[in-house]
Amino acid sequence: MELTPPGPRGIPPLFARLVDDSALFPPGTATMPEALRAHFEARAGDRSAMLGVFLCQASRLPELITELIKVKPKQPLPLSLIIDTGLGGVPKAISIVESRSELLSLRMVEMPAPSDVDEVWLERVSEFVPEDVIRVVEPRRGVGWLDGVRKVIEHGSWPKIRCGGVSSENFPSVDEVADFLAVLSGSPGASFKATNSLHRAVRHEDPETGIAHHGFLNLLVAVARSLSGGDVRAALSATDGQQLAEEARALSEPAAKAVRALFASYASATFAEPIADLEALGLL
Q1: Domains of the chain, with CATH numbers?
Q2: Per-residue model confidence (pLDDT) at position 7
Q3: Pick from 37, 124, 178, 234: most CB atoms within 10 A?
Q4: Strand pairing partners for 213?
Q5: Which of 15, 67, 4, 58 has its CA nearest to residue 201?
């Protein structure tokens, strides 16, 4: 991934293209026109270098294309295609995207893995997804989960970790996230993507549900520590934003790029909140 260098409108390498736009997914409630309008506004804004791809379900591709025809974007929309139609629906969805190359630029295809991730299924993923498109596979947490993560990595895909959702069981524990990072940092050349409930920078408790949410800054610092032999669990558990910010700020540019080579991006239903948190911490 090419990282935007710091500059007047640039973003430090640690945060370049970190946030993928999942406004169409819960807890986001945006309609397709609203989501696209906000995305293009962000892409034209001062923090645009922090924005990654736009996420859209395969089942909503016709709706997306209809709206893009109205918008007439100057550049094709960088797209991550979320497969909600089953693996068999991948070739048709990709064919639709490729037929509208003036509107869409397919960068990534993401899909959930079956409970038992095997070589046959992963080979079909490779057959269906073009070589120049990133494959992201989400193994299901549970018994044998980390074995599934290893198989995904060995197959040349990015594993995805779900860090939250609508109920408490969707939130992995600090130990589960640390174990996931241990597998990734011990696999040369591996990258991963995160998703759900990471719109805030620092770990915090939701006042309405009482559920502890992971922070994306915690995750960045934890990855840095996993690469340097530091205390990963302490970084994931930390709630002191200034302390995390100081550690992130102290990373050299090569160290920041190594972190982002491993932690490629995460999906957020809001772009404003991650920006506001980083600004408040003095990191932008």
Answers
A1: 19-280 (3.20.20)
A2: 43
A3: 178
A4: 204
A5: 15
- On whether the pTM is more than 0.90, the answer is yes
- Residue 166, pLDDT score: 82
Q: Which long-range contacts (CB under 8 A, 24 or more apart) does 220-223 make?
A: 220/14, 220/248, 220/259, 220/263, 221/247, 221/248, 222/177, 222/178, 222/181, 223/181, 223/185, 223/259, 223/262, 223/263
Residues 192 and 262: beta-carbon distance below 8 Å = yes
Q: Which residues of the chain have pLDDT under 50?
A: 1-2, 4-8
Phi, psi of 56 (to 5 degrees): -145, 140
At 9 the pLDDT is 58
From residue 157, alpha-carbon distances to 56, 70, 72 in Å are 19, 34, 32
Alpha carbon distance 145, 117 (integer Å): 9
